[in-house]
## 1
Amino acid sequence: MAKILVIAEHRDGVLSEGTLELCKAAKEIATGLGAEPAAAVFAKDDAIANEVAKYIPEVFLVADAAVEVYTADAYTQAAKAVADAQDIKGVLIAHSYDGVDFAAKIAMALDCGIVSNCNKAAVDGGNVIFTRNTYNGKIQEERKVNTDKFVATFEKGAYEVEEAGGAGSVSAVSASFSDIRTSVKEVIETMAGSVDISQAKVIVAGGRGLKDGDKYKEVILPLAEKLGAEYAGSRPVIDSGWIDPARQVGQSGKTVTPDLYLAAGISGAIQHVAGMKGAQCIVAINKDPEAPIFNIATYGIVGDLFEVIPAMMENL
Amino acid sequence: MKIVVCLKQVPDMESKFKIIDDSKIDESQIAFKINDFDNYAVEAALQLKEKNGGEVIIVSAGPDRAAKDIRQAFAMGADWGIHINDPAVYEGDNFVIASALVKAIESIGDVDLILTGVMAEDIQAAVTGVMVADLMGIPHSTNVVKLEVDGSNYTVNRELEGGLNEVIALAGPAVFSIQSGINEPRYPTLPGIMKAKKKKLDAKSAADLGVAAEAKIEFIKMFFPVSDSMAEIIEGDPATAAATLVDKLKNEAKVI
């Protein structure tokens, strides 16, 4: 039977949570298509594969020193080996940093369409209809492939995490590797800093809507101080050097789960939301009523943050 | 160094979006600009040219309106460009567009380096650059936040989750997708804007470039997201709304 194949993601011996979300997605899609869910693990040994087998019935393991460290070339060759050995209908990959680096290459190797950055998949008459964010999350669209096979990448949080409990099989697939053109020298930490915002109970975060670094400091810092909060920012704030990189919230920064997260002038791009959606209460202040941040906030004020925040200060 | 930057013109994301027939954006309400990530790619290319000599060539697929933003990159300092202004290409999927970009890049010849933004802000696919590399049979790296060149050897930092960077070495020619924050994109100067008007911009069709690729994915429809957890919007003038918010945070959510 045809397989819907999750490509497991792991680093330093740790399986990513996104992989467990993909296991859930694979089961749903496979059920709709009359296919079987499976996963592929590319690693130096069988440790990760044995872990993945708790979440999905069948695991194909390419165990080779060539895939001990991720590279796009080695992962593509390993995926091709699994696709050649098995009847693969669809490949599911996390829309993560590694996933973005190799998913399109696997689609090229399988000569099939890729729908990337999806948040939902529904099966309709043998076709998988993918829903995905566009226009910075303001608009969603549906797409499908017109090739026999498909590759799809899913944004973090698109599916619930699959529960462990199964005892899937692990079978080895042999692959030969050649011409791996990138070599990984080292992995470095770029956010080393004295502050750890991930433990804060209250966070006041500013975004592009603050306009410049001076205004950020004038508006955000006093509010953070008054609330006994840590201050933080979205990517543009860090890119522009207004605050320390250790204070970045989002996919490329910290993940935070405070009681209160106040987002001022932050549009709510998925990369930012990934880092703060676990907050208990989210307040969004933004002048754009269509900003996607309002779709996940608890309370929202559509207005000029330069008027709203000083007015808040008077009430605190 | 001969450096190509693949650039896309996109809507300003703060525009008021209207959808026509579930299938397209009403462009009459939209201001267009260079894709934000591509601005960083242009700046990275210009800095490499300033250090190592050579030229920076813009390759872009898009309707006639895209010429404005290709010339914006010229005004920043890019030397010339190819504008694939054929709907058979720019209305195609990522594979068709990547195939056309490759044909355009091959028509330039002897290109050392190809830079793109990490993704286009409108379609948010983040696949075209990787496809370009694959079609050309050259290596790539994505989400590049640091880029150093020594002859034809490159050392790049690839961004990972949680503030980690992977340091990668590879030999060119190569494709890098450039992440925001790698540099501070320059603004065009007035002399730059004057010069940009005279720089060469070749318009090409799919037939001119010999593009025969066919789409592998299909668009079905577009719609505004429906959230089941939409915020409670607090109405009123700023003072009233702010007072209500503080009250709710204290007495309803009990988080301050």
## 2
Amino acid sequence: MAPRIRIRALLAGALVATLAAGTAACGGDDRQDTGGPVTLRYGLWDSNQQPVYQQCANAFEKQNPDIRISIQLNNWNDYWGGLARGFIGETAPDVFTDHLAKYPQFAQSEVIEPLNRYIERDGFDVDQYQPGLAELWVTPDGRRYGLPKDWDTVAIVSNQTKLREAGITNEQLDNATWNPDDGGTFEDIVARLSVDKNGKRGDEPGFDPLNVATYGLGLDPGGLTYGQTTWGGFARSLGFELLDKNPWGTKYHYDDPRFIKTIAWWRHMIEQGYMPPLAESRSLGQAAMFQGGNVALSIDGDWMIPTYSATEDFEVHYHAQPAGPEGSWSMYNGLADAIWVGTPYKEQAWQWVKFLASPECQNIVGSKAVVFPAIPEATRRSVATHRKNGVDVSAFTSYLENDRTFLYPITDKAPQINLIVQPTMEKILIGSESPEALKDMNSQVNNLLEFSD
Amino acid sequence: MSVVGQRTTALPGPGTARPARRGLSRETRAALLFLAPSFLGFLVFYAYPSIRGFYLSFTDFDLLRNDGEWVGLRNYQAMLQDALFWNALWVTFKYVVINIGLQTVLALGIAVLMHRLTRSVVIRGILVLPWLIPNVVLALLWMWMLDPNLGIVNHYLDVVGIGAQDFLGSESQVIPTIAGINIWRHMGYTALLLFGGLVMIPQSYYEAAALDGASEWRMFRTITLPLLRPVLALVLVVTVIGSFQVFDTVAVATGGFGGTPGGPANASRVMYLYIFQQAFEFNALGYAAALSVALIVLLAAVAAIQLRLLRAGESDLA
Amino acid sequence: MSKTISPTQTQTAELASADPDRRVRVKQGVQWGRVAAWAAMVLLLFISLFPFYWMLRTALATNSQLVNGEQGLLPPDPTTLNLKQVLDLASAQEIEEAGTATTASINFFTALRNSVIVCTLITIGQVLFCSMAAYAFARLRFPGRDKLFFLYLTAMMIPPVFTLIPNFVLIKNLGWLNTIPGIVAPFFLMTPFAVFFLRQFFLGISREVEEAAVLDGASRWRIFRELILPMSIAPLTTLAVLTYITAWNEYMWPLVVGDSDGVRVLTVALNAFRAGTPTIAPPWAPLMAATLLAAIPIIVLFLVLGRRMVDAIGFSGIK
């Protein structure tokens, strides 16, 4: 071969490719030059919720012909990274679903829009929601960064077939008691539900905790920092409070003996073979293990009802968390919609946020029985729809009726604190640290909080 | 680094730069034109961002706020007291030792096997195949194969009687597992690089040695290793630098489906991942920049030591 | 070829047996060492290939089989549904029944096209501009040359995460976010490795031919184009192959600047697909189908280029 390199030909090739690339890239920014309706991007992470918010969007578009809503879905793990890139790159969604663990930092960095002036101007009623929800989104300086769209609590999900096989009734589970010393009747139930590979049950002699076929209780391996679907309700039922005040606490109480005992009990359950080890839970996740029959009970939030109730192989029931000395408690959390400060369409974004927070949209959400909307009337619709579908969700609402809810902990530096707490909790559950390590960890956490600027 | 630039290449005498004469010589002008595009790329995408990064390491720059103030050495002081920084260093160090140690030995073995057994392109091709596939893809694949419940590896470990292992879910196994995945990915490629060096060694040396009755091991020690040293040095420097920057595999494979990567319990939070998390999860760009500077200093030191130890420049072949 | 094999055979036998009496053994005719060496090679080949087989096998299984712990070496009931799902050829109902519904489509062919465009551009730009720079460093005399080269080399040490943000901001200011030029830009003009690699090679080219051309009055550009480049086809090919593969595997940068519909390259599209899967029950079957399809283009390239590619990689170790 006589390789005379034709640089001009190569460059021409490169040029053609660039042009081709240019056409490919055009999809990126379709919002600039159109004189037609404004398109708002709306960010969401839960695929279960997309259909109902699409319905809200349709209703909204009908009333506001000059605004279109384009829902952008991203799984929780990638949602926040994508948002951060969007803020810097100025391509963030105009409106997005916000979380209590994340919004303090967004507020501090001023990437979300305070809603106060819109609310005052339009005389919007922020008291129409379930008590307490709206105030979660107000920072200490009085700025309001979101309007509640839903609320959630946590309950015990049971596999009815496994319950029957173990000879345990729903009433027993509904009325279970718990304490960190002997685990109460709840531990007895969980032990009874655990079955090893030889068919021995957890409360029978000779049960092999290292070869378990069905664990009595599932373990949600993420989010151990605030224990929303793990230790949260249990520790609270002992009277434990994680923060000196919530929201905007300044001191954590991870060193409280009641908390340490709760975590020690958690570890005890894993050691007994009543709960799956961390590694096993991480690989599949609690819900998949439940649906696969590897765990008989799981502790999960109401946003997972659509997933659990779709289980085909067996019937599923929901139960309030076991009652400790102070009764049966649940963490109480809610989401809100926030406006990105850099949106070119603030007014339209506010209209959409207002609509999402209005009875009209929340009733649509309620009638679909996906999550519990923040407005009480819409919540009732949701409960009714569930009942019509044959699903009894009273376990989730019972906490509100009995006033046994506590709020999701909100402080500064939540991501940094998570990086200290989650690994320590994992170590304890794995068994490579003793629960006493929580004392040390707590002073680290409080140091971090104290010396933050 | 100057060592790489100057020693490995044995600059020919007349090539060294002369002091500039009046005006620009014809050659200098030509050089400017030749260098212009790459120099533009260097300035824009390497030099400027590096200087900026260095500057940021003395600020409390917040990624989201897109703003920060000069804080002097505070980031560096905080770093020295940051248990997670030391943990990241230690974890990275463990990874590099396992990864480079095993990978180099294996690759050398494979290269010699390739050299002595067969010149088959198919075999070389198969061995290098894993390197052709994106890290992200391979991390997912191994995550699946090593799954404690459903993975094929644990299935066979169970069948054989060893019993299922946690691999990515265990504090003590996660780093060896990640190292193993990357060794699997790189061993064929590294072997091929070394093989390239092996085929340069004149066959006559071996023939002469064989006539003298030298054993294969002795030939390896007295012919192969010394003559391969320059190539080996180059390969080692490049792989060690790459090894210190391990990220993709950890980021994809240790998070599980729902957890944050780096676990369990910090056991796989390597330096690069920690920098990434500081920058993109905590938005603490200033601190992340300080961590990066520490990593760069470390890399430079390691490379310098390596080159000195391996006497990379001295080519025994020439 | 066959002639050279016989001495090699005995040597290999010795190598693997590592036995003091090896020469005696070899004379006996049973070359156990050689057998052992081949066994080691076969084992290595198996280790290299098996995961790919498992990827294929998983891609052809149904998700429910996987979740139920089906571990047979052959998929009990091969299905192409997962592949169809990834290629957007499956109906929503089929996917729903298989229980592998995801919210994100991988847009496979768009991503493939983007990957090809991006890698081609990067390879052309990098090989061309870096060979120019390498030529200047290897052959031309100008003040500050070695210092500048040293600077280029130090850039090799800089972890990409360090330059990521400033580069991201720059691309944003250029308005190139979520465009192909934005993904290509940082790799288009130079990488320190490419300059270093080609310079090493150019240093080895004989000066005499070149000097004759200079005496004939040829311009540097002509010498470069008509003498140096044609003589360097082998290392240029090597570099092109390496660059292409590296660009193909690049993940972080395209994720940061090009994570939107229409510009995602394959690695990023795969991540988007993974991110669109529900966290509760990982749909491994379609995920493996997607990883398989993402791997296929490079494997095909590999089959087509075969020897040249292998030689090219082996070549890069030689200075």
## 3
Amino acid sequence: MADRNPVVTLDGVTVLYGAQRALQDVSASFAAGAVGLLGPNGAGKSTLIKALLGFLVPDSGRMRVLGLDVAAQPLDIRARVGYMPENDAHIPGMNAVTFVAYCGELSGLPPADAMQRAHEVLFYVGLGEARYRAVETYSTGMKQRIKLAQALVHDPDLVFLDEPTNGMDPKGRDEMLELVRDLSHNKSVNVIVSSHLLPDVEYTCDDVVVMDKGRVATQGPIAALKQPRGQVFELRVKAPQGTEWFVERLRAAGLDCNATDEDVMRVFVPGDAGARELFALAAASHVQVRHLRPSVPTLEDVFAKAVGVE
Amino acid sequence: MSPIHDQGYRRYGGQRTPPGHAWSVIAKAGIRTLISKRTFIGLLLLAWLPFIVRTVQIYAATSLPQASFLAPDAQMFRQFLQQQEVFLFFITVYVGAGLIATDRRANALQIYLSKPLSRVEYIFGKLTILAAFLLFVTWLPAVLLLFIQIMFSGSFKFFVDNLFLFPAITIFSFIQVIAVASAMLALSSLSNSSRYVGVLYTGVLFFSQALYGIVYAITRDSRFGVIAPAIALNRLGDAIFSSPTRVQLSVAASAVAVAVLILVSVLILEKRVRGVEVVA
């Protein structure tokens, strides 16, 4: 993506559900291309998307989508964005091609163009052969695909995908991720993927905004966030006093350490000391190091660090 | 090697209609769906039977001297519209009950409202579907009867003598249709089940009339007709057609009752038609 200007910006956005704060003073910027909106369930991802679409009016703050103010120009924004909702959603009593063409007409396409585009996008999402079937008869995976088709029929500049792989089998999931990646990397469509599935975001997106408890925990290019200012090691030890005891010793020494299995742990060593510091600590604690190898940081590490889980 | 013809996703470079026309897309799609149903076509044909009977009446009155007692007067048009109320009811339930309820059941509201259309446009589109069919069985046949009267009699005398008829038919039909359609649409937005909405509408209609009947039996005061929308609408109809009325209810009170019904319906729709339902 040549243009890395933000497609969505939020400035101090707060959304209240009664007394509960769904979004708390959220300031974020979504770069052009594919951006993952990551967070555990209840983090506020869907609320954020719904606020950007104008379904929810924030109690404070400002939002801009594609350079347009959400509060002032919601219809102009919706003409240029597509939305794939999280839950099962369709217009009842229609077959797939009628439904998608209808969505195109609602978005301002002339009827003939809408019908032509409906056929094209249904083939693109893999529903070409099933396009004359009633949407009600579709499987969960097919319903996910048709939700994507209706979001694309009017050729949006930006698509919000809310949990796009929900309920899909592994093959369907891979195909859906491939479609999302193709859209953003080959078709010049900006994509915001909301998901709690880290591998989905890591595969499809270049940037990420991590949310937790209604706040932005961290944001930026995934590659930059994964760059450690130090090294991560995968370590297996034999500790006479138990692995937990050694984990506590490492933490006491200022190392970030997560036990992933009975005797396996991932340790982040800041600075340039690297493995030497680990060996020194193990020797001082009379712990045998059975296995040690440098580990490639994953988005999971970024996520865990951002939302403060082990 | 690039493919001869890429069947993948392509950008769209054609025309786009600016926002503001989506209501007509909704209305057209809704009307098309309904007229493809045989049961509904049957219901519409049934609703035009009184029109045929009245046409025969006018023909006989204008062509056969011995049937001159059948000659239409202004009250015939009022009676015709009253006769159509039964079809108004059935079409309202058949068409209206599912207009929003089925969209709610299928989570279609978030699809609609993620497109460049406002909530007002969505509601107006849905209202147009119901209103179009209701006017098709009330206003249209009544106006056609007026035209047929002129045609069969071969003179404009009846039309000129009753100049108020066309505006009266139009005003009453539109008030009736807007009140009924907005009430049904509001009820439809309250549930995900069109069957339940149909029962609810029937219940509200008959319960309010039964309640008025009880109150009238106790007080012998027909001004309490204000609590039954159907009675308030009928009183307005009587006033518009200058017909004798059976209730003491004032025209102003009837108008207020109908206005309140429409206002409450609009408020319900405003609350219920949203892209997201917030349960605080």
## 4
Amino acid sequence: MSTISLKRNLSRSRLFKENFFRVLVSLSIFFALGFILFVVFILFLQSRGALNLDLFRNFPSARPANAGIQSAIFGSIWVVGIAALVAVPIGIVAAIFLEEFINPNNRIAKIIDLNVRNLAGVPAVVFGMVGLAFIARGSLGWGFTVGTAALVLAMMILPVVIIVSRESIRAVPSSLRDGSLALGATQWQTVWRTVMPSALPSIATGAILSVSRAMGESAPLLLLGALAFVTYNPESLDSDYTILPLIIFRYASDAKEEFHAIAAATSLVLMAILFLMNLTAILIRDRSQRKA
Amino acid sequence: MGSGAVFSVVVTFLIIFSLIPTTIRFLQEVGTKVFGTSWGPLFEPATFGLLPLIIGTMWVVIIAVIVAVPLGLAAAIYMSEYAAPTTRRIVKPVVEVLAGIPTVVLGLFGLYFVNPELVQKYWPIGEPTAYTALGAGLVTGILILPIVATISDDAMRSVPGGLREAAFALGSTRSEVATKVVVGASLSGIMAAVILAVSRAFGETTVALMVAGSYAQLTLNPGDAMQTMASFIGFAGIGDQPVDSTGYRTIFFVGSMLFTITWILNIIALKVIKRFREVYE
Amino acid sequence: MNTENPSGVRINPATARASQEIRAAVPPQKKSNATNTNHAIFSLNDVSVSYGDFIAVSKVNMEIPSHSITAFIGPSGCGKSTLIRSLNRTNDLIPGAKVGGKIMYEGIDLYASDSDAVEVRRRIGMVFQKPNPFPKSIYDNVAFGPRVNYRQSKSELDGIVESSLKSAALWDEVKNRLKESALGLSGGQQQRLCIARSLAVNPDVILMDEPCSALDPIATMKIEDLMIELAEKYTIVIVTHNMQQASRVASYTAFFSTEVNPDNDRRTGQLVEFDDTRNIFLNPTDPRTEAYVTGRVG
């Protein structure tokens, strides 16, 4: 009865553009997923039998059959662990200070904020150079040791910890703070008893992600002796050391093909460790968001 | 307690103080030789022409951008404009996992797969060897893709829904709303994403070292091995250069160039982001 | 002083005066344009709209006449906005939104599987509560719809932009600054720009979701005059919180209210009464309608 129609009335070119575009953008996600799976697949292929417990039991050796990564595992634990112990508390405390106790319009506060954000974007290798100039050599003269490595990594992840913690604290609604202050609590009590518990899951997520980033870093410690051939686990801050990313680098660059398999296997181990850490962080974030 | 905050300022000063004096000493010693065309500061006789390093860096960065920007933007548009909330909750972690792959593993991928199976087999110009700038560029591109994707996605999601509703109400298709309204409205955020990604590509050491090699040759063919500023620092830093030797000073000179470039790019990006946030808040 | 009312409840004198103003303002029955038969352009049969398991509005039956202004009035939360958005499938954009029953437009089911939402929205345009011009120039805002939908030469486009802006009573104010950003206009001008933008694609219907609630009284007046003018060529459906506005511009009015669902204590919107505007305000049938328009409730 009516002369109009509501059927699709797109010109050929519009319809084509719409479908083509839709396919294109979906493909990009498939590419990302496919790439991850493909990398894991290639690594499995290349690791040809090197993925076994001997990998963890053995130390680096000139003979591929006896080579393992134990010193690198413990080296990573030492270096990243100490870096986290230094950077995370300082970062959180600095974030509390900057968010709760300083007027944001203060000129100095703005400069510090800009500074921290810029530091988060500095290439990792530059931190290695600073470590080389002032910590390994120069004023501190600690040499190529666990202590040097830990301090350099701490410098590197500190800005990120500060930024993430600040955002977590900022996300706590001011009504919570106001309520606590209205009951007569001091500002410090408010922060400690009200703001921090609320911001904690988010801060924890950020901290874990920062630490996992430190675990995967290779460039800065390249300059600080982590590529050395170390066949024992660290015993003190003064020990020589190596770390997982750099033992991968060492084995991958070796002329002997057999070492390449170990490099691939270690890559899978490293990725598994990082995946678990990130998964933990995401679960914490999800669980706290669901509660909210 | 404020010490933590001050610590970060201290770090910045340390960076600058480590770089500047050594750079000055380097320039005093080397001067105009940096305008040469041969880079071999660790050889005898040492040459200091920066051109090969600059070209090597540019090739890797440009190829990385060509890979990362279209793919990253497409992923961002998908996450922001097309994905249902449940789909998005699955897709976003995929991008985060991609971002979490360690650079050394990506370098391995470039060395074991991209160079031998892709570049060496299919690149028509010259004779690609086990190390190519093209391979390094491709892998670095995938490395920086998540930066483009997540920051662009954030920018697009902060475009008010009212603009989309208005465009739909005029009879637009979803792709038209995405490309003609949302992208335009979030353009400065997207630009900031690209600038940050470029800065990251400049600074990437491990991938360039493992995939593009350490041969600083002056060539225009990306299928050749090249050295970038960052990979030179990595390469030179492996050997323990005596403090204040020529090699040591060269490392710091190239380091200050790298630092300056990335610092400037980051400041520009942060300013763009700030202005973008002001518009939409 | 108490105004006469059947149930003997005391009425607040201020609202009583306001409602008397409304009754005085209702103009004589508007006759439709003789050359366009005033037929039912929308036919709603048992329509309900829900988001997930929340039913926003249910069991709506009404016929909306063409070439006139129909107003949806009622207290907050009664589903007027939800309903008007389902008239051009804007609700499709919200995940989990579902429409039950049938909405017929010129005899065709809006939600049939072969009805294309893009075509629906081209024919049934919408203006929103908060003016939302694109961050582009005035010209590009109005030209957006035609550029996307049709292919035309530059001079044709110029003509469309000019006539749309004239129809929206904005041309004289902006004709010398078409290339300037639309964001530099005042609120009232931006809303008229949004109307011009909708007109540019030559729709049959313009839906308006509280178009004046973000504007000052003078801007509101201009837009109300515009609406009455536009009703000669287009069908207009508006949602409004402002009863006086409904009585000033609308020929037909639909009054909605909420009902508490005994099962889950949630409120669902309902169409209470739909009639000529005069009848709704001067002679309502349902006591809930009377309570609302006389100011006792809402």
